[in-house]
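Good day; I would like, with your permission, to put a structural problem before you. What I wish to show you is a protein chain and, alongside it, a tokenised description of its three-dimensional fold. Thank you for your consideration; the sequence and its tokens are set out here:
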Amino acid sequence: MKFGIIFETHKIPEWYEHYLDYKRLKKLIKANKKAVKAGTRRKLNGLYRVTKKFVVYRADLFDHSKSE
């Protein structure tokens, strides 16, 4: 069974609004890979984090003062 299906079935209803939209994230990653291959976008190296609104930030492992 695929992760996306398992993930959907294990979500807790009370927390549903706080979960990341996995299908949307997967589409975003595929689109980014395609753009990198086409040369219209550069590949991101390092660690990044994605907010619930799909804003991408470079992850700073030592700065804990950042919040969404």
In short: The chain has a mean pLDDT of 81. Strands lie at 48-50, 56-58. The chain has one domain: 3-58.
